[in-house]
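Researcher: I'd like a structural prediction for the single chain below. Treat it as a standalone chain; there are no partners to consider.
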Amino acid sequence: MKAILVTGRTLGQGLGLEMGKFSDIYYRNVATCEMNRVDMERLGVKEGELIRVSSGLGSAVLRVVKSFEEVPSGIIFVPYGPWINRIMRPETHGTGMPSFKGIEVEVEVEASRLSEIPKIDELLSRG
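Model: Treating it as a single chain, here is the predicted structure.
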């Protein structure tokens, strides 16, 4: 399924940052993808299942959650964090900040035998 990715800060992400990026709270709040209920049905996933979000630069496995605030169909929201940073384009267009919104991505059910999302230390060890 094609979608538009929007990233940003959330209350849970901020709480996780205060507890530390290696904390379970940070992991649970950042390695997630908020999705519209209709899109979840169309994709055939239920809350808590794993999906793969891919851009032209790579992919990230995330746990899907029903959006806290209604996310329009065709748009997904992922909190800022190392999981989604892996697929963001590095161009800053002279601003010093990459574009964190409006990124075309492909979303699919995670097809590998992966049962858990890699923790941050695993992500960092992969380079």
